[in-house]
């Protein structure tokens, strides 16, 4: 299985004054990216793990850093040249519990499967790489044509499941993780998360 940890975002919502990129935030004595690499390796020792980033600081033992050829729109984070059969895309700025990664690594599908909450998608698994590539292309082209305001994981899910793009509706091919992940869009979210862990 190939796991692609997407870490080539522009971090537009992350304060530029904060000295640590959110992918490198320390949590329990390890950085966020390193934690995800370790969790994948613990669940799938034979996995191929790739971190997509143009930042040399994002290289990590147990994974290969890859610089994407194209990263214009958000949908491009699903790096086209890395889409193969049996691939899992995960977000590099997301905190995953050990249980969440174990669930993600156990998912078997004959097409595509999505993992997340009602607020965000945190992983996309594809058994059929060509199928995923086709839907990524569709969402990208619709966005360029002005037919879609956003072109992210949600629009990929809507395209794959044949839903309307007007309203997000969680249905088939979706595993809901209620408390298994945490995203950090603002410094305050990270600080509150660390404080809550220290109280436990």
Can you characterise this structure?
The chain has five helices and eleven strands, in the order βββαββββαββααββα. It is an alpha/beta fold. The radius of gyration is 16 Å and the shape is globular. The mean pLDDT is 91. It has helices at residues 32-43, 98-106, 129-144, 153-161, 187-199, and strands spanning 2-6, 26-27, 30-31, 48-52, 64-66, 87-91, 94-96, 112-116, 121-126, 174-176, 181-183. It starts with a strand and ends with a helix. The longest helix has 16 residues, at 129-144. It has a seven-stranded mixed sheet, with helices on both faces.
Quick structural overview:
The protein is 30% helix and 21% strand. The chain has 5 helices and 11 strands; from the N terminus they run βββαββββαββααββα. It has helices at 32-43, 98-106, 129-144, 153-161, 187-199; strands at residues 2-6, 26-27, 30-31, 48-52, 64-66, 87-91, 94-96, 112-116, 121-126, 174-176, 181-183.
What structural keywords apply?
200 residues, alpha/beta, two-stranded antiparallel ribbon, 5 helices, 30% helix
**Percent of residues in helices:** 25-40%
Helix segment count?
Answer: 5
Element order: H for helix, E for strand: EEEHEEEEHEEHHEEH
pLDDT under 50 segments (min length 5)? none
Strand pairing plus helix content: what structural class? alpha/beta
Strand order of the largest sheet: 5-4-1-6-9-8-10
- N-C termini distance: 35 Å
The radius of gyration is 16 Å
What is the residue-mean pLDDT, rounded to a whole number?
91
Beta-strand percent range: 15-25%
Gross morphology: globular
The strand count comes to: 11
Largest sheet entry: 7 strands, mixed
